[in-house]
Amino acid sequence: MTRTSGATVLRARGVVKSYGPTPALRGIDLDLAEREILALTGPSGSGKSTLLHCLAGILRPDAGEITYGELALGGCSEAERSRLRRTEFGVLFQFGQLVEELTAAENAALPLLLTGRGRKEARTAALEWLDRLGAADVADVRPPRMSGGQQQLCAAARALVTAPRVLFADEPTGALDQLTGEKLLGHLVRAAREQGTSVLLVTHSPGIAAYADRELSLYDGETDATGLGAGQRIGVPR
């Protein structure tokens, strides 16, 4: 698939999701463009993480359609959606979710190994990202011996090592101090600009949302038509 700046890479129409009798998403529409950073904002419980999980193929919506390019995610098997998350998508959760038995370098290299890359090539790429993110000193350390911030930087390296076409970041700076969080956000911006990665950034922080090109605000499972729900363009720190 050709990476054309400005083309829509991910599209959602009428996405609905409930947990039992409780609605989480009430018919969400969303477009994510190539190389765009889109912030999903809103209060806790507004549906931000649920929407991200649906868009990443982790959850299946109850209704609506999500397409990645020309591919309808609803028609994909679990194995096909897992393959997308190994090759085309990167996912960065708030608390890392690392494999505790693996070192930081092994965790970061894991997506490449799962797609058939050689161990030496995968480790080299993992070490490069750990170094860029300021976590090279824990390359051979396992998660139980890392701080929360170090674990999150390792998880970021794992999410970025494949040069994903779409990066899903769910409160990515939650475990980081302000300086380290700003450094990580700077890398997400550069990934979007330099390698054509589109970024969907879930946050409740206006300061973090300011790194995005646009902001989509959710409230009670719906886009906020009174404010930024239509996707107002905002400033990006340089």
Automatic annotation (TrEMBL):
Keyword flag Ubl conjugation: no
CDD domains tied to this protein: ABC_MJ0796_LolCDE_FtsE
Listed GO MF terms: ATP binding; ATP hydrolysis activity; transmembrane transporter activity
Record domain ABC transporter: where: 10-238
Entry's Gene Ontology cellular component terms: plasma membrane
Keywords of this entry: ATP-binding, Nucleotide-binding, Transport
Any Pfam family matching the protein: ABC_tran
Name assigned to this protein: ABC transporter ATP-binding protein
